[in-house]
Amino acid sequence: MSLVDDIETFVRRRYLFVRQQLRHLQAGLGYLSGRPLPETRFVLFGRGRSGTTALVSMLDDVPGLRCEGEVLHNYVPFPYRHVLGRAARCSAPTYGCKILSYQIQDVQRPPGRPEDFLRTLHREHGFRILYLRRTNLVRHALSNIQARRDTFHRKKSDPDAGPAALHVDPTHVVEWMESSERLGAYEQTLLDDLPHLPLTYETHIRDAEAHQATVDTVCDFLGIESGPVESSYRKVAPPALRDRVANYDELAAHLAGTQYETYLD
Q1: C-beta separation of 190 from 37 below 8 A
Q2: Mind listing the pLDDT tens digit for each residue in 15-37?
Q3: In a designed cystine with 49, which of 34, 143, 165, 193 is the match (CB 3.0 to 4.6 A)?
Q4: CB < 8 Å & 24+ apart, contacts of 238-243
Q5: 3-263, what's its fold?
Q6: What is the pTM of this model?
Q7: Which helix (H) or strand (E) holds 67?
Q8: H-helix or E-strand containing 255?
């Protein structure tokens, strides 16, 4: 890495740190302001690489709805106040934000049991819960692996670039799937006895033709009027696993006879 790359990395990290601190300050001021919260509030909950970014983009297109991204990506001393403060700063009648399960488990330190985090937001602060998950564990694992090398979702304005096939370590893929299953079990402890709208990447996000119906379903759950939407993100991963994985036959042989074999094309 060159000196210029080092400087750019340092500057970017400092910028992200300062931006996060500013947002935390703004949320704190919003919480202390005493302003009423938007009439309708919700959390988009799930795992990373499950279509949450695309859904945030679609929901943010709905008139009168403001949906933020990962408001708890970095540690904040008072996560409940942070979420409430972000909501208080919203001028739209409907406010939503994305919170990923690992952020509750590993990043934040809410008072009480972390497993009660969503219940508290729902029962004490009126947040409704959308739960988006990805059912195909092989594709989910590959998406996470790819995300550490490149990105499978780009802005529509970005130059076209065909995605290169991944060469993967089959053992690493299994490790990702096992980790995802553990996180999925943890998510169920947060959702236990909690009313929520279940959504899946495969049914509601993957195909563009389903996007309008997905947003309509969410708006009906929230009790608000829907509107025409278009995600500002486009999927660029090749559709077939054989096209996506350079050593597909090796991966298939490794998964043969396991519970993960059914996720292969």
Answers
A1: no
A2: 777 777 777 777 877 878 889 99
A3: 143
A4: 238/163, 238/165, 240/265, 241/138, 241/139, 241/142, 241/265, 243/165
A5: Rossmann fold (3.40.50)
A6: 0.88
A7: strand 65-70
A8: helix 248-255
| 96 φ, ψ (degrees, to nearest 5) | -140, 160
Cα gap 249→46, rounded to integer Å: 31
Q: What is the pLDDT of residues 118-175, one digit of tens each?
A: 999 999 999 999 999 999 999 999 999 999 876 444 444 455 555 678 999 999 999 9
Contacting residues for 55 by C-beta, under 8 A, at least 6 apart: 44, 130, 132, 199, 204, 205, 214, 218
Amino acid at 249: D
The count of residues in the chain is 265
Could you tell me which residues are beta bridge partners of residue 40? 94
Cα–Cα dist 31/181, whole Å: 36
Amino acid identity of residue 265, one-letter, is D
Alpha-carbon distance values, 99 to 96, 196, 259 (Å)? 10, 14, 29
Boundaries of every domain in the chain: 3-263
